Amino acid sequence: MEPMSKNVLVLADVREGELRNVSLESLAAAIKVADGGTVTAAVFGSKGKDLVEKLAHHGADRVLLVPNEQLDTYTTDAYFQAFKQVIEKVEPDVIFTGHTAIGRDVSPRIAARLNLGLVSDCTDVELKDGKILLTRPIYAGKAFVKKAFRDGIVFATLRPNNIPALEADTGRSAEVEELDVQIAPDSLRTLIKDVVRKASEGVDLSEARVVVSGGRGVKSAEGFKPLQELADLLGGAVGASRGACDADYCDYALQIGQTGKVVTPDLYIACGISGAIQHLAGMSNSKVIVAINKDPEANIFSVADYGIVGDLFEVVPMLTEEFKKVLAEG
Description:
CATH class of the largest domain: Alpha Beta
Number of helices: 8
Structural class: alpha/beta
CATH architecture of the largest domain: 3-Layer(aba) Sandwich
Number of domains: 2
Distance between the termini: 52 Å
Order of helices and strands: EEEHEHEHEHEEEEEEEHEHEHEEH
Helix content: 25-40%
């Protein structure tokens, strides 16, 4: 039987100086499989010191700061070099990253260079008889497989909103160490001159606990307004089907599906979405699905926990008013 305790490394996913929730979820998975071993969180960028306390409260025994300013904004080459040096420093038995834009890009490169196996987009992690079992969806979410490594470093990316983060323990502290990584300037094929972002407010779609999505049935960009109102009321985010994006009702950044974002919220409300297989691949693992569609034969009802046959422009405002009453009652 393999030694039970393991040295686990988590690459913290940082956006604009803030930790993404998937980093805390990765720490919860790390504690589960460490089984008494050490959990190390690596933080890239010059603002890492501000995140030490939160990482410690959520399970990190050790925080490795990599305060290189070249890592403040993600580039493939810089992160690859830094991550490789962190792995060589920590010598982990297990590596977890979030299945985010950063994790999806840098992890395969690291795995290829270091000749490691990689299991991506995992929705569950468990420890059984000393073996780490990783669950991931296949066939666009229609089935799940469990995988285990025969030997070597266990390396996986974890899908957001699937492994619950631990409650913060304010009594915990972490050992802090800085690592001066060497990034050769002439090896960087990309130089970030400036970052221009579309103005956006509210919850990150990929980490939202509530998602209200619209399809072609919203009929126009104006049709998304009642969906946005409902999402704001519930502290959630607005998403869309590819059909709505193709029709120019909304930006492609909102697209959910096989060629868009994959979300796993606690509540997914599909409004005017027919339920094409490509869209279902991006949301069918949501914990509770509510479908609103005028067509009782729409495929979306096949995956819905609750279905409402009706006009979304009548149903959504009614839902919003009812939620307001419930929230007002406390």
